[in-house]
Amino acid sequence: MGAFKYILKNEREIYKNKERKAALLLELTKQPAIVRIEKPTRLAKAKTLGYSAKQGIIVVRARVGKGSFRRNRPVHARRPSKTALILNYRPSKLKIAEERVKRVYKNMKPLGGYFLADNGKYKWYEIILADKNKLNK
User: Fold this and answer.
1) pLDDT digits over 40-55, tens only?
2) Are 7 and 44 in contact (CB under 8 A)?
3) Per-residue model confidence as pLDDT tens digits over 5-24
């Protein structure tokens, strides 16, 4: 596992180096919400989820908006009976990204996904997809 160790070290340096992270975020903000990419940004993480550079397996980058799960308190003249701040539990941002990608690439099956980067407004994930027909062979 010699080379894998150095790949992981290189990935960690991207997030420690502010200039490299800023360059990555600048590139991400210019792209649309769902983009197919040639190869994964975090190769070691992709390999653990089942990525391999062969036909039938692709990597898609998805952008999901950040937001809280909190419900706003109603502001009215009188106090309504339903004033409780109920938490609306939703699936994780990764699960939301996978569902959106699945809607675009209907013939593909998601193998997994991982966090890539975030800023104040968005989170980016990379989803690994496999062709359903190629998996059966």
Assistant:
1) 988 888 988 989 999 9
2) yes
3) 888 888 787 778 888 888 98
Which of 114, 69, 105, 106 lies closest to 90, judged by CA? 69
Contact present, 94 and 118 (Cβ < 8 Å): no
Among candidates 91, 92, 111, 113, which has minimal Cα distance to 34?
A: 113
Residue 75 near residue 86 (C-beta atoms within 8 A): no
Question: What residues does each domain of the chain span?
Answer: 33-136
C-alpha to C-alpha distances, 108 to 69, 112, 131, 134, nearest whole angstrom: 30, 12, 5, 10
CATH architecture of 33-136: 3-Layer(aba) Sandwich (3.40)
Rounded Cα–Cα distance for residues 72 and 14 (Å)? 37
Model-level pTM greater than 0.85? no
